[in-house]
Amino acid sequence: MRAAHTEAQVRAAEEALMAGLPPGALMQRAASGLAHAVLALLDGAYGRRVTLLVGGGDNGGDALFAGALLARRGAAVDAVLLTESPHEAGLAALRAAGGRVRRGTAAPRELPDLVVDGIVGIGGRPGLRDDTVAALEAHAPAGSGVTVVAVDVPSGVEVDTGRTPEDAHVRADVTVTFGTHKVAHLVDPAARACGVVQLVDIGLAPHLPAPAVEALQAADVAALLPRPTPASHKYSRGVVGVRAGSGRYPGAGLLAVAGAASGLVGMVRYVGDPTVLDRVREAHPEVVGVGRVQAWTVGSGGDNRAGAALRAALADEVPLVVDAEALRHLDAPVRREGGEPVPAVLTPHAGELAALLDVERAEVEADQLASARRAAERYDAVVLLKGSHSVVAHPDGRVRVNTSSTPWLATAGAGDVLAGLIGALLAGGLAPYDAASVGAWLHGAAATYASQGGPVVATQVAAAIPEVVRDLLT
Ligand SMILES: NC(=O)C1=CN([C@@H]2O[C@H](COP(=O)(O)OP(=O)(O)OC[C@H]3O[C@@H](n4cnc5c(N)ncnc54)[C@H](OP(=O)(O)O)[C@@H]3O)[C@@H](O)[C@H]2O)[C@@H](O)CC1
Ligand SMILES: Nc1ncnc2c1ncn2[C@@H]1O[C@H](COP(=O)(O)OP(=O)(O)O)[C@@H](O)[C@H]1O
Ligand SMILES: [K+]
C-alpha cells in the first residue's frame, strides 16, 4: 500500500523521531537522498550544472545541503536565494563545498542541466510570488528541457488537498519526498505537477498514524482478488447482473457486460433492451438472462428507462454499482424503498459528480478529494470519481486514489467496462470500497497493458483484464 499523510501528521511523526536523534540528523538524511536522486538523473556530477532555487524554510535547507554534496562531487552548483533568511547551516555548507550564491531573478548566461525546487515544502502556502515565478522561468523556461526536481513537493501546490488554487506553482519532472508520501502526490491536479515521485526513507514510518489517503499496489490487489477454490461452483463464485445499454447506446451494454465477463465471477446475466440482449449473446455466448444475482451494475449507456432499472436493482437485496444515466435518478442518501441502507458504489465522472452535488464541474475538477468525500457522505455510498487519478471515497472518510492508469484510457466506453468490472467484484464478495478500488486498479492496469504506450479502445481494455489478473496471481 502506498500511504500519504498530511502536513500535521508528518510534523507530529517528525517530532517523535527527532526526540531520539541529534539535531539536524533528519535534514542530512533528506539532503543525502535528494542528492543521490539528482546524481542518478544527471548520471554523475562532474561537469554538470545545477541551480538551486532556495526559499526561507527547511525545504531550502534540504536543497542547500544536497547542493553541497553535489558540489563536493564536482558539479557546478549555483544557489539563487529567494529569501532574506536562508537556512544558515545549509548556506555555509554549500559555500564551503565551492557552491556559488546569488540573489535576483536575472537569467543565467547558460541554462543549467537541472533545477532544484527548494522554494517551499510542506510549510508552503499555495501559489508563488512574482519574483519566484520569474526566477523559475529564467532558469527552467517552459520547453527548455531543463530537468526540474522538486524537494518534497512542487512549490505552490496545496499539500493536504491536492488543489492548485493559484495557477503559479512548480511543474516538476521528479519529486523527491521524505518519510512518506503527501496527499498532493496522489490527488489531482497537484499530482500532475509532481512528475515521478521518489520516496526517501528517513526512518519516519514507525511514528506515522493511519494515512489520510492510500493507493493500492499490485500486491494489495492480488491479496483482495476473489479467486475460486476446488470447492467452488459457478453460483458460489457469484453472479453479476447488468442492466445497461439502450437502443440509443447499445455499445455501452456490450462494454459493461465485457467488463463484468472478465472471468472474476461464475456467471453474468444481462437484463434490458431486447436488441442489446441479442448483440450481447452474439458477443458473449456465456451470458444468460433474468434470474438471481449477487450484485447489479446499472445505468451505463441507459436511456429514460434508467430510473426504472435503478428501482428494480434497488428492490433486490444485493449491492449495486450505479453508473451514468442511473446516477441522475439517485436520492441522497441511497436507500431501498423501506429506508434500508444499500451497499453501493457510484461511478461518476467529474460532470456527473457535479450534478450529484449541484455544483459546477470546474469546482469538482479543482477539488477532487473534497468533492468525492462530500458525495460519499451525502449519498452514504462509496463514490468513485473517475479521472486520471480516480478517487475512491468511503462515507466514513477513508480515501484511496488509483495510480495504475494511462492517459490512453480517456476513451469512449471505458467507464462502461469499469462499471461492469466493479459489479463483478461486488458479486464476487468484495465490500464496496474494495470492489471500487480493486476495480479501478485492474481497469487502469488493463489499459496500460493493452496500450503498451499507444492507443487503445474500450473493447481492448476489457479483453486485457484476464491477462492482468493472471500476471497478478502468478
Ligand atoms: N517534517 C519532516 O519530517 C522533514 C522536513 N524536511 C523538510 O522541511 C520542509 C518543511 O520545512 P518548513 O517547515 O521550514 O517549511 P517550508 O516548506 O520550507 O516553508 C516555510 C517557509 O516558506 C515561506 N513561505 C511559505 N509559503 C510561501 C510561498 N507561497 N512563497 C514563498 N515563501 C513562502 C515561509 O516564510 P513566511 O513567508 O511565512 O515568512 C517559511 O520561511 C519539508 O517540506 C522538507 O523539505 C526534511 O528536512 C526532513 C524531514
Ligand atoms: N487522463 C486520464 N488518464 C487516465 N485515465 C483516465 C483519464 N481520463 C479518464 N480516464 C479514465 O477513463 C474512464 C472514462 O470513463 P467515462 O468518463 O465514464 O467514459 P465513458 O462514459 O465514455 O465510458 C474512467 O475510468 C477514467 O478514470
Ligand atoms: K519544493
Automatic annotation (TrEMBL):
Gene3D superfamilies: 3.40.1190.20, YjeF N-terminal domain. Its EC number is 4.2.1.136, 5.1.99.6. Binds 1 potassium ion per subunit. InterPro entries: Carbohydrate_kinase_pred_CS, CARKD, Nnr, Ribokinase-like, YjeF_N_dom, YjeF_N_dom_sf. AMP binds at K386, G387, S388, H389, S390, G415. GO terms for molecular function: ADP-dependent NAD(P)H-hydrate dehydratase activity; ATP binding; metal ion binding; NAD(P)HX epimerase activity. Its cofactor is Mg(2+); K(+). GO terms for biological process: metabolite repair; nicotinamide nucleotide metabolic process. Residues 10-210 form the YjeF N-terminal domain. (6S)-NADPHX binds at D58, N59, G60, G61, D62, D152, A252, G301, H349, D416. The keyword 4Fe-4S does not apply. Keywords: ATP-binding, Isomerase, Lyase, Metal-binding, Multifunctional enzyme, NAD, NADP, Nucleotide-binding, Potassium. It holds the Pfam family Carb_kinase. K(+) binds at N59, D117, S155. Residues 217-472 form the YjeF C-terminal domain. It catalyses: (6S)-NADHX + ADP = AMP + phosphate + NADH + H(+); (6S)-NADPHX + ADP = AMP + phosphate + NADPH + H(+); (6R)-NADHX = (6S)-NADHX; (6R)-NADPHX = (6S)-NADPHX. In the C-terminal section; belongs to the NnrD/CARKD family. Bifunctional enzyme that catalyzes the epimerization of the S- and R-forms of NAD(P)HX and the dehydration of the S-form of NAD(P)HX at the expense of ADP, which is converted to AMP. This allows the repair of both epimers of NAD(P)HX, a damaged form of NAD(P)H that is a result of enzymatic or heat-dependent hydration. Homotetramer. This is Bifunctional NAD(P)H-hydrate repair enzyme. The gene is nnrE.
